[in-house]
Design brief:
single chain; alpha+beta; ten-stranded mixed β-sheet; 14 helices
Length: 448
């Protein structure tokens, strides 16, 4: 039974927000970034922050650190993301993934001496780790499973199970927009434990209903006496550099991370970003906090409702159907691991047939979807500094023409209005004009 937790790469502790209400006790954190560390100190002053995770294995083996029932972590995702160069294990940050395994091994060695079961392992990361060219994911799960050599795959399935000599490891990509957050945030969630632990019973579900589509909502609405416009029912993935690099990626052209408030276009506020990740209002609004600090910390964190969903299933035995008892019927999903004492299952098809009548849900959607709208997220008290200036609006439009990018038509009108503050009929006319001039832009509307 899981009662205690140790947290690696803790950030601002989405795990604590999600799991403390479930009765789990956090024994220690590990975070080195200054601003998240300040947040931890303010929110959880009674819990020690160990700092650098590289020192944890030694502390555990020396029996100077509590050995928890569960260790969770999300080692730096930048090594596996496009923005971070996708250097994988060749990046020092990517190598922390293997240090995470060292921590698990040290923890279990001490737990075994005192007659305790192996700890449960929870790991979150970007989906890109599944196609990392250095096979970081293969190294991670092979090491956790206790294999002597890593299993090699060019691209790992979005869901699967590895039964090794030491541990069973399951993983599944889940999208936060189906868990009550209006944000398209696909992340990989890994769950592992000893040979008596069956992570597939937690991460996967019996499929017995039709999936719901994301509901259509009005994109122009009034709230708290203000007129708002958004450009989609849900946002793109909130990224850590949103505070400083808000105008140079896909979200700058589909509008999903912009809001129009009273005819003026702006970014999402830190408060709105907190809501977009499932944190309490003003969770990161500590004394002396800068907006860029808050944006980065929030964007680097976990989607709280997804982690809560996994935590509830992990701490309850009431899953009903025990998937592990039917694995003998999954022969079509087995991948041969030559020379390895292991069984690997590929669940990338999403809906897996077990026997004649049972279907297993391994997709990005849970069986019980929860939907919220951006209307619930937006706040009328956004600071003036996050409104997009005429120069900023002009820059986005200019790059659209220079790079021949597609752009949300309503967003384009809002940006043109922001750049030149023209009457509505002029915006309508100018937005249809073909680009011209030195930069392929219409000089008459002031953004050439």
């Amino acid at each position: 039974m899981i009662k205690t937790v140790g947290s690696i790469c803790s950030g601002i502790e989405a795990a604590s927000v999600a799991w403390k209400p479930l009765g789990l006790e956090f024994k220690w954190f590990s975070e080195i970034a200054p601003f998240p560390s300040r947040v931890l100190n303010e929110k959880f002053p009674e819990i020690k922050n160990l700092g650098d995770m590289k020192n944890i294995p030694k502390a555990l083996l020396e029996d100077s650190l509590y050995t928890p029932d569960l260790i969770c972590g999300g080692t730096p995702c930048q090594a596996f993301s496009l923005a971070g160069g996708k250097k994988g294990l060749n990046d020092e940050r990517g190598n922390l993934t293997l240090k995470f395994v060292d921590i698990i091994e040290a923890n279990d060695r001490i737990r075994e001496k005192s007659g305790q079961m192996p700890c449960t392992v929870f790991w979150e990361n970007v989906e890109g780790v599944l196609s990392d060219k250095t096979n970081a994911f293969g190294c991670l799960i092979s090491s956790l499973a206790g294999l002597e050599t890593e299993i090699l795959m060019k691209k790992w399935p979005s869901a699967g199970l590895l039964e090794g000599t030491k541990r069973n490891v399951a993983w599944r990509v889940l999208d936060a927009k189906y868990f009550g957050l209006p944000q398209q945030r696909r992340r990989l969630y890994v769950l592992a434990g000893g040979k008596e632990f069956h992570p597939e019973d937690v991460l996967f579900e019996i499929h017995n209903k039709e999936f719901e589509e994301y509901p259509k909502e009005t994109l122009v609405f009034e709230k708290d006496g203000h007129l708002f416009e958004v450009f989609r029912e849900y946002s793109d993935c909130l990224y850590s550099a949103y505070g400083t690099k808000w105008n140079g990626n896909a979200a700058a052209y589909n509008g999903s991370l912009f809001v129009v408030q009273d005819q003026r276009i702006r970014r999402l506020s830190p408060l709105e970003c907190e809501r977009l990740m499932g944190f309490p209002d003003n969770y990161t609004n500590i004394k002396g906090a800068k907006r860029t600090n808050r944006y980065q910390a929030i964007g680097n964190s976990w989607a709280v409702p997804v982690v809560e969903w996994i935590g509830k299933r992990l701490t309850s035995d009431q899953h009903g159907y025990k998937i592990h008892k039917k694995k003998k019927d999954l022969t079509d999903n087995v991948i041969v691991c030559e020379g390895q004492n292991a069984t690997l299952y590929d669940f990338s098809d999403g809906i897996i047939e077990v026997g004649r009548q049972t279907l297993i849900n391994c997709t990005e959607k849970p069986e019980e979807c929860v939907f919220r709208t951006l209307r619930e997220i937006v706040s009328s008290d956004a600071p003036k500094e996050i409104y997009i200036s005429p120069v900023g609006c002009s820059g986005i439009i200019r790059r659209k023409y220079e790079r021949k990018l597609s752009i949300n038509s309503r967003l384009e009108k809002a940006l043109i209005r922001g750049a030149g503050m023209m009457p509505e009929e002029e915006i309508e006319k100018k937005s249809r004009v073909q680009p011209r001039g030195k930069y392929g832009c219409n000089k008459k509307i002031g953004y050439a």
